[in-house]
């Protein structure tokens, strides 16, 4: 697997090489156009010189030939000059009479409407100039090979190839150094992370520039470490609390069995011992069921089936169930400003989990109330359902409020007033989060109010 440093180097070299190739091809292409244009200009000048000597000075063929050769200090390779009379359909003059057929093959391409024509044939470049006088229409045709231009293009090609190869080598070295410097902070981060262990999970990754991309990555990673630290602390507290919760009834059960086995006792004593063991067994069963419920809520969150649930009806069902189990409970349901739109009473959620949510909150409200009484206020407005559950129980200290939704946490204000394990509110919070709702708590000397807010079907 190629590492990031190598990939960055390859990409840098590849992109810059493409740019160099593009510019090199541009230089070569425009240099070629320039040399061709310059050579056509030389051919055109030769044609004009021939026209001047032949038609204006009225020189003989041999004289014209000598003057043309003397006029150019740099003779053209394989130069051939011909004069073709369009009226008589014959070649009047040629510097190479033995090879007049070379120019004759271009005669069909001559266009009388054009003044000058530029043609190519293999390595030859040809210029034809159209002249009209009293004696008829003539074409002066000049051809030659630009050997100097070809050699210049070959030299330019070699220079560009050498320069590109040298540039690729330099780009590879500079790209590697550039990638190494760009990734240097990542190496520092890796070294820091390698020093993190559960024993020092409170450490965080440091980076000098928090505004660049690596700084944002470090900030995100530190946020992950915060969540991991919180999860580890919760796990430690969970293990400590569950160990304590299990230890007490198990120790009590073992102690009662040991005492009962020391000597023979009367049936009444054994009966009292068995009833005590039965109560301790039920306590363990309730604790185990609560833990399973908490685990199922966490694990099966994504597998829950959501459906329309009418919350006012669910409240009545919850009240009925609680009153069947606890005859001494008094639950008052209040529905001020009851909506006419049925969608304002319906939320999309899992009916069973919402039932557990209401059961836990109302049960806690009655359980911690001196008169086992709770008031439930139901209000639907602006696309949300707000359910406020109030009891007149002891005030929860302000310092304990941020922790009451943690598993096994029990406030000192309520721990002595009722039996429990401190798991119910943790389940409530998970159900609220699954349904994208909100929960808040307010506790005063008059009592405690838990308020939950859920979105209705009317808001979608």
From TrEMBL:
It comes from the Bacteria. It is found in: Membrane. The chain crosses the membrane at residues 12-35, 159-179. GO terms for cellular component: plasma membrane. Keywords: Kinase, Membrane, Phosphoprotein, Transferase, Transmembrane, Transmembrane helix, Two-component regulatory system. Its main location: membrane. Its EC number is 2.7.13.3. GO terms for molecular function: phosphorelay sensor kinase activity. It is an enzyme of class 2 (transferase). SUPFAM superfamilies: ATPase domain of HSP90 chaperone/DNA topoisomerase II/histidine kinase, HAMP domain-like, Homodimeric domain of signal transducing histidine kinase. Pfam families: HATPase_c, HisKA. It catalyses: ATP + protein L-histidine = ADP + protein N-phospho-L-histidine. Residues 241-458 form the Histidine kinase domain. Coiled coil: none annotated. Residues 180-233 form the HAMP domain. This is histidine kinase. It comes from Spirosoma agri.
């Amino acid at each position: 697997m190629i590492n990031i440093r190598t990939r960055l180097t390859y990409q840098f070299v590849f992109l810059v090489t493409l740019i160099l190739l593009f510019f090199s091809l541009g230089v070569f292409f425009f240099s070629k156009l320039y040399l061709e244009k310059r050579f056509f200009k030389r051919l055109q000048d030769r044609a004009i010189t021939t026209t001047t000597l032949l038609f204006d000075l009225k020189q003989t063929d041999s004289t014209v030939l000598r003057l043309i050769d003397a006029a150019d200090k740099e003779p053209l390779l394989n130069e051939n000059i011909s004069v073709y009379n369009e009226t008589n359909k014959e070649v009047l003059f040629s510097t190479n009479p033995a090879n007049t057929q070379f120019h004759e093959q271009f005669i069909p391409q001559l266009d009388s409407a054009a003044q000058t024509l530029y043609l190519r044939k293999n390595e030859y470049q040809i210029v034809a100039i159209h002249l009209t006088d009293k004696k008829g229409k003539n074409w002066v045709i000049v051809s030659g090979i630009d050997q100097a231009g070809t050699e210049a293009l070959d030299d330019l090609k070699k220079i560009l190839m050498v320069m590109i190869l040298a540039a690729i080598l330099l780009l590879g070295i500079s790209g590697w150094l550039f990638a190494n410097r760009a990734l240097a902070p990542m190496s520092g981060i890796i070294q820091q992370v390698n020093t993190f262990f559960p024993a020092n999970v409170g450490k965080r990754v440091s980076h000098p520039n928090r505004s660049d991309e690596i700084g944002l990555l470090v900030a995100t990673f530190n946020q992950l470490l915060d969540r991991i630290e919180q999860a580890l602390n919760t796990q430690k507290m969970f293990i400590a609390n569950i160990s304590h919760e299990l230890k007490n009834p198990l120790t009590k059960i073992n102690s009662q069995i040991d005492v009962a086995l020391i000597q023979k006792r009367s049936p009444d004593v054994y009966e009292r011992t068995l009833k005590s063991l039965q109560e301790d067994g039920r306590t363990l069963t309730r604790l185990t069921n609560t833990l399973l419920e908490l685990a199922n809520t966490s694990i099966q969150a994504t597998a829950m089936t959501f459906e329309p649930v009418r919350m006012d009806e669910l409240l009545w069902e919850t009240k009925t169930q609680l009153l069947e189990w606890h005859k001494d409970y008094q639950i008052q349901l209040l529905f001020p400003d009851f909506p006419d739109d049925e969608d304002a009473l319906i939320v999309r959620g899992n009916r069973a989990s919402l039932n557990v949510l209401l059961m836990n909150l109302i049960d806690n409200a009655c359980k911690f109330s001196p008169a086992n009484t709770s008031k439930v206020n139901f209000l639907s407005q602006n696309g949300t359902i707000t359910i406020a559950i109030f009891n007149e129980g002891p005030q929860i200290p302000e310092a304990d409020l941020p922790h009451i939704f943690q598993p096994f946490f029990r406030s000192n204000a309520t721990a002595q007033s009722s039996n429990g394990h401190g798991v119910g509110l943790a389940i409530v919070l998970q159900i609220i989060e699954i349904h994208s709702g909100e929960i808040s708590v307010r506790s005063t000397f008059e009592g405690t109010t838990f308020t939950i807010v859920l979105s209705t079907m009317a808001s979608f």
